[in-house]
Amino acid sequence: MTKKKEIEFLRVTHLRGPNIWTYRPVIETWLDIGALEDFPSNLLPGLYERLVALLPGLVEHRCGVGERGGFLERLREGTWSGHILEHVVLELQNLAGMRTGFGKTRSTSSVGIYKMAFRTRQEKVGRAALVAGRDLLMAAIEDQPFDLATVVGKLQEMVDDYCLGPSTGHIVEAATERRIPSIRLTDGNLVQLGHGAAQRRIWTAETDRTSAIAEGISSDKDLTKTLLKACGLPVPEGSLVRSAEEAWEEAQDIGLPVVVKPYDGNHGRGVSLNLMTQAAVEAAYALAARKGGSKSVIVERFVTGDEHRLLVVGKQLVAAAKGESLWVTGDGKLNLIALCDRDINTDPRRGDTEDHPLGLIRPDVSAEIILELARQGMDAQSVPLAGQKVLIQPNGNVAIDVTDDVHPSVAAAATLAARVVGLDIAGIDIVMEDISRPLEEQGGAIIEVNASPGLLAHLKPAIGKPRAIGSAIVGNLFGPDESGRIPIIGVTGTRGTSLIARMVGCMLRLTGVHTGVVNANGLYLDERKVSSANSMTFDAGERLLINRTVQAAVFESDARMILSEGLAYDRCKVGIVTDMDGHEALGEFYIDDMDAMANIIRAQVDVVMSDGAAVLNAAVQEVADLAPLCDGEVIFYAEDHALPCISEHRAGGHRAVFARDGAIVLAEGGDETVLLALSALKPATATYPGAVLAAVAASWAVGMEPELIAAGLRNFDASPAGH
């Protein structure tokens, strides 16, 4: 019976941490390509043309060739469907707005079975792209129609639903550029930057430094004005009113035209400008009361000029955007809804998602626009005369970058306003005619101070260059020498690794830092066992990393965890490797020799930072052979001090820990320090000399003094009673 050409998913796994493929999260799938094993792409007539027609962006995939068009070259020459699927899935994610480029495909020892991995920023989107990619590839192979637009549309909806918003994503990317790790804490935009006690948290443009009191002040527009005025900042005259009648009385006292807005509103919702009549003021009051959810409404003097949004981060002005009014011109045929669609909404920068810096204009839906049209004696169904200009929205396009034009005194006023309210990140709305001139020269005024300001107008301005908002926010949260990291020690192998992890944790505790440990025996905080469950898991490790009291952390991992979940941390200060035993138990992962095992265990060495160290068991040659892969220092340990690799290592001036004449010795080049006799250890501890040496080397690697290490060893009890 002839096997059908198809691709079957045997297993799909989300590897959340560093793994055998890369440092970043990937989706790994095992593929059975069946009869397609006998049909590389060059033996599938028309596949190249059909695939390029469906996904022209594949030309940008460099693949192993290393240049633009590299993958297409491989496709022409002949490559297998597992590799093709990898690139199709990556391209589908790119089309959906979730840019990524990493992917790899490898054959296994079983004919037709492949392991394929691809980078994804969100698991659900990645899994959906994988299924869609298989459907697309099979349609191209079988010369069947495929509705790409519908598939990409669904993936885009998933990106909008599940991925970080563009503003939060921009901040996270800025943190990543500084090698500050991040953890997404919810399905929304709450993200932790950094680990343990060194962490900060963001929620779009709010941070854990954003004061709740300051947020409360900013939402009370009347109080905000009072505080700003008291500090000498220009604000428009106005008062709080509680009825339409009071609003009109206040408007007459101030002098027309006026502005009416909710006292507790935000982002310009419910704001009506340039009101000249009693009917307009009373209608604006109703709108403001409804939008603000309260009868309390502010009536204030209308300030002539354009609205500007100035973004303050910390004590610095980092961006400024200008607004301009939106107009349409009648043709005597189309109503205002159609004119807005023709003249305004066709702008590709407008849309309903967060990826669009400008929103769609709906004159039949937006209460502010409905009110503005009513002031002109029109509504959404009105048909203007040919050539007639109609104002749709005053200052409705606050997305023109003017950062380079800001007068120093205007910047000073904006930063002072943020400090007066108490916000670490603030959007200061100022109305003025010319941002390059001082406010007092033109009668400009601060009309609003916003907590959690929108960032998209500065990241994707309609006109002008984008601003590095993320870098400014990250720089405000972390000093120039801060990485958001705590010392992390990883232990991988099978020989005494649980004991090593706990011993290193006890050593670190002696330095006065709050220490967490996860190993196969449980989860420990400052030597107190808080869970007896096997904590050699990604979730248990993350519990340590999000704990704000933890100042150092130790993680036990093994080959199975790396293969099934990935490491629980992205980088570590010290990585310990004890052995490469146990590949015989990993047959289900197609791990069938020592080379495959080494490819797994090397992940522990790959994640060691350049200022860190790999602690390697010199008595296992395969482990010692990992030394060249380390970006940092290498410290060998072994019970046999005469091993050739230790002698060669010391000859190069490097460090080693070993046992000689019944004592533990620390060596750096030709210098030696006898730490203590093995007989000084508690009896249970002394039965694990290899584990003791590994723990000593790791403690030395993080900077512990020999005397303190010796004191810790004397007191450590490896017996069950000492747990």
UniProtKB/TrEMBL annotation:
Keywords: ATP-binding, Ligase, Nucleotide-binding. SUPFAM superfamilies: Glutathione synthetase ATP-binding domain-like, MurD-like peptide ligases, catalytic domain. Residues 225-482 form the ATP-grasp domain. Signal peptide: none annotated. Transmembrane segments: none annotated. This is Cyanophycin synthetase. Its EC number is 6.3.2.29, 6.3.2.30. It comes from Massilia soli. One of its GO terms (molecular function) is cyanophycin synthetase activity (L-arginine-adding).
